[in-house]
Every structure is written in structure tokens, then in C-alpha cells.
């Protein structure tokens, strides 16, 4: 926040600390401004990607019926019959995903040489709704937006460090901006300038108020979005944040999931995915989304992931593994496999990182807050540059005229 709202009393010099803060705020803000503008604008668009996708792709919606969903084996059979009718070479059905009532289910299938097809079905009737083998127009748009947000449309190895570094600089400008914003003398006049926007003022005064006041009110939200975003750019920052929150060193396991007992050669239970489905909905009838991953290799287990809320939250999801032959529950091998209720407070906050960054942690209210914070964050480099330009050259232009 490049502030000029709180002027120093005449005859009183600024401290060295304040001068350094103002210098850092000005030049670091100018240096990182374009990147911050792009990252914030694309972040604002990214917030509502699920809602836009849901309403622009009708095959994601079905009419709610007063009956139970078909079991996974029935939907998988419908998918296989459909693909056979098209003479497609089905390699495997890797996943089956159920949404909440009113949403379609879909199977992720592997066809031939590394080709994927998402077959959307009505979970009540098994009717094929969509055979999706390429991203939809909405998905392509949001993939483009995400590429700008994460990498500035550059190769990942180049763009990600640039974005992460600009976000670190942005954090410094927010802190130094708050120092510059803080009035040295509190009175009625300085309070009005610090906390209120004078909408009937001339455009230069209005621009300063928009920069200072909106910057102050949004600072906390922008800081949260920025810190949670830097996590995706730098591993050292990610591990440092984890250690700060949990007082533990982050461990990375090479093994993704537990292994099935390969000494058993034949399944002991018919249609094991149906048994897993029945157990899962009995434990979590309030699910937002359930994803069952089917094993491909002999040692792979079944995996059942339950997502709550609207089905997009990932921080408190439930993950269960089952032996592919006996359906015995297996213990997870990764720290992320632990139940959200079992981990420490710091671990819970760390798991919220993605949901905090995207604003979906508490649903629509926090999405709106994240959207507004992104818009204000995008405006700060613009309004700050205008303030700097007017102070640098505005008076000279007026004298010339």
C-alpha cells in the first residue's frame, strides 16, 4: 500500500525505520506489480471454477430421484457395454466417482495407448450422459487461467519461481504498506483518511483512498492467500511452513499406498467394489463425493476417498484402503492417510492450505471473500503506480501547462 494519506507533521523528521519501509514498499511494489496483477486477476477467476463448470456442462446434473444409487458394479457394467458398442478397446476402469444427490456419477476408463475417457452416467438409472475424452470448453478456459496463475504461461520450471518470488516480495510490500499506512498521530482527520473512502473527492484523492483503505481492510485475507500460494512454488517454503505449524520435520514416503496380499490369487468376495461402496455410505451418509479407485496391478489395493461439503474440500477427506482379495482394511503408509480428527492442530491447519488458498474452506462465503481479496490485490499495484506517477511527474506536468 503506497500511502500518502497520513502526512508527517511539519518540523518532525521521519525515523530511519519508516524511511526504509517506505522505500522498500515503493520499489518492491513497482518491481513485482505486473506479476501480482496477473496472479491476482487469474486467482479471482479460478475461485469459481467448480460453479461455472457445473452450470455450463449439463451432463454433470441429474434429477434427484427417491431411490438409491446403483452400485459400482452396475455402473461399471453399463460403461463396459457402452464402450463395447463403440468398438473401443477397454484397458481398465480405474475409478468410479459418485457425487451428492443431483449430480451425475462417472467412470474413468483407460483405452488403448494411454487414452482416457470419462463416461458420465445417471447414478439412478445407469443411462450414459456423456462420453468425455477431451476437456470441455470451460475446462480449457480454466486450465489456461491456472497456467497464468501458477506459471505466467511460461514453462513450469521458469514460471513457478517467478510467481513465488513475486509473492514473497508482495508479502513484504503488504507489511511495509501497513507501516506506511499507520498514522503517526491519531485524531479525527487521520482516522477518516485511514478507514474511510471519500467517494466525492477528486479522482487523485479517491485513488489514494482506494489504495490505502481497501489495502488495509484486505491485508489479512491477501496475506493468507499469498502465503498459501507460495507453498506451491518452493519446497523449502512448504517444509518450513509445515515445521512452523507442527514443530515436526515433514517426511515424504516413496510408497503411495499399502499393498495387497499377493499370496492370495483369487478374490474371495464377488463384486468387491459394491461391498466397499456399501461400507462407505454407511459410515459417511453425508458425503459430498466418493471416489473408489480400482486396483490395476496384483499388489494394488482398493482405495475409497470420501470428500465432504460440496465434494470439493480436500483437507478433511477420509481415505480407506482395502486388500483387493480379502477386502480387509489396510493401514495407510502416508501421513496424509491419517484421519483429520487424529492429527494435531498444526497439521489440520497445514492440510487446509489448498482449501484456504482457493477460498473453498467454508464454502461460498469464503469463496466470495477470496474473490474480493484477489480483486483488491490486483488493484493495489495499479493504484500504487498511479500515486507514484502523480507524485513523480504530476506536479511537473502541471507547471509546464
TrEMBL record:
Keywords: Membrane, Transmembrane, Transmembrane helix. It comes from the Bacteria. The chain crosses the membrane at residues 23-48, 162-182, 214-237, 368-389. InterPro entries: PepSY-ass_TM. This is PepSY-associated TM helix domain protein. The lineage of its organism: Bacteria, Pseudomonadati, Bacteroidota, Sphingobacteriia, Sphingobacteriales.
Amino acid at each position: 500500500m503506497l500511502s500518502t494519506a497520513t502526512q508527517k507533521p511539519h518540523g518532525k523528521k521521519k525515523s530511519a525505520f519508516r524511511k526504509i519501509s517506505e522505500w522498500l514498499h515503493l520499489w518492491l511494489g513497482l518491481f513485482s506489480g505486473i506479476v501480482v496483477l496477473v496472479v491476482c486477476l487469474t486467482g479471482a477467476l479460478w475461485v469459481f471454477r467448480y460453479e461455472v463448470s457445473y452450470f455450463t456442462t449439463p451432463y454433470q446434473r441429474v434429477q434427484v430421484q427417491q431411490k438409491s444409487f446403483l452400485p459400482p458394479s452396475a455402473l461399471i457394467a453399463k460403461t463396459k457395454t457402452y464402450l463395447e458398442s463403440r468398438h473401443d478397446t477397454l484397458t481398465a476402469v480405474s475409478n468410479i466417482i459418485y457425487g451428492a444427490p443431483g449430480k451425475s456419477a462417472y467412470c474413468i476408463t483407460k483405452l488403448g495407448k494411454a487414452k482416457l475417457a470419462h463416461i458420465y452416467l445417471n447414478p439412478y438409472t445407469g443411462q450414459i450422459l456423456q462420453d468425455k475424452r477431451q476437456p470441455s470448453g470451460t475446462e480449457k478456459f480454466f486450465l489456461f487461467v491456472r497456467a497464468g496463475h501458477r506459471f505466467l504461461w511460461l514453462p513450469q520450471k521458469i514460471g513457478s519461481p517467478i510467481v513465488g518470488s513475486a509473492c514473497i516480495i508482495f508479502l513484504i510490500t503488504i507489511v511495509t504498506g501497513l507501516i506506511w499506512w499507520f498514522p503517526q498521530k491519531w485524531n479525527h482527520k487521520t482516522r477518516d483518511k485511514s478507514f474511510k473512502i471519500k467517494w466525492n473527492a477528486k479522482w487523485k484523492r479517491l485513488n489514494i483512498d482506494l489504495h490505502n483503505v481497501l489495502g488495509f481492510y484486505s491485508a489479512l485475507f491477501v496475506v493468507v492467500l499469498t502465503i498459501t500460494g507460495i507453498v506451491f512454488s518452493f519446497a523449502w517454503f512448504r517444509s518450513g511452513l509445515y515445521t512452523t505449524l507442527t514443530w515436526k520435520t515433514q517426511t515424504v514416503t516413496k510408497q503411495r499406498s499399502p499393498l495387497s496380499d499377493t499370496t492370495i490369487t483369487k478374490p474371495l468376495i464377488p463384486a468387491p467394489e459394491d461391498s466397499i461402496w456399501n461400507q462407505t455410505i454407511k459410515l459417511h451418509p453425508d458425503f459430498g463425493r466418493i471416489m473408489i479407485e480400482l486396483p490395476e496391478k496384483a499388489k494394488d489395493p482398493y482405495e475409497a476417498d470420501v470428500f465432504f461439503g460440496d465434494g470439493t474440500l480436500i483437507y478433511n477427506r477420509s481415505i480407506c484402503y482395502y486388500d483387493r482379495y480379502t477386502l480387509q482394511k489396510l493401514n495407510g503408509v502416508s501421513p496424509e492417510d491419517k484421519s483429520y480428527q487424529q492429527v494435531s492442530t498444526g497439521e489440520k491447519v497445514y492440510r487446509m492450505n489448498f482449501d484456504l488458498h482457493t477460498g473453498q474452506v467454508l464454502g461460498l462465503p469464503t469463496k466470495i471473500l477470496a474473490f474480493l481479496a484477489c480483486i483488491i490485490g490486483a488493484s493495489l499495484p495499479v493504484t500504487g503506480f498511479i500515486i507514484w506517477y502523480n507524485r513523480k511527474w504530476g506536479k511537473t506536468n502541471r507547471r509546464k501547462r
